[in-house]
């Protein structure tokens, strides 16, 4: 079984696809995972969601009623809600966010080490921009700025290959940051959850962050 270091130093295909429909990205991620399971090298797909949507991970099935109420509110406001075959609860994806989908062999260090590496890379990007994020490794696992979530990780293992990945908020709409776009939204098990982003002008920022995050991901794990 390959080590975490070998995985991220032997990924031959890293693609920033720009704005991409989330469903299309999922389809591509699944196809790339099949190829990796058949012996092809690992891949990283980075993209900005083309439209807002809420994805519900496997833990959402046993989530409290507040999450169901939150989903209903989102749907009433025209937000698409999709099930996702990954760990975690609910994650909001929308323009201004950078998503990294992995298709890499399961490392010998295990999923926990992989999650920590993904979040550490996102934290390094944030620190490069003068922010002071902190990691949480409990039921609120992720990258936070104060009490607002900056990045989330949700993974799935299929036939020895890790799929899905990381979502890093780069330059979100002001109403999303103010928690007025989808009031009452339950994310990460928290009602009225707040989100944070890296800040700065949105023009070309997601592409810039994609390049910086890739550098940190491919650095020695």
Keywords:
7-stranded mixed beta sheet; 6 helices; 3-stranded mixed beta sheet; alpha+beta; 221 residues; BirA Bifunctional Protein, domain 2; 10 strands
In short:
By secondary structure, the chain is an alpha+beta fold.
Folded structure, characterized:
- It is a single chain.
- The chain is α+β, with helices and mostly antiparallel strands.
- It has a single domain, classed as BirA Bifunctional Protein, domain 2 (2-Layer Sandwich).
- It contains six helices and ten strands; from the N terminus they run αβαββαβββαββββαα.
- The strands form two sheets. It has a seven-stranded mixed sheet, sandwiched between helices.
- A hairpin with a 2-residue loop joins β9 and β10.
- α4 (111-128) crosses α6.
- The radius of gyration is 16 Å and the shape is globular.
- It starts with a helix and ends with a helix.
- The mean pLDDT is 83.
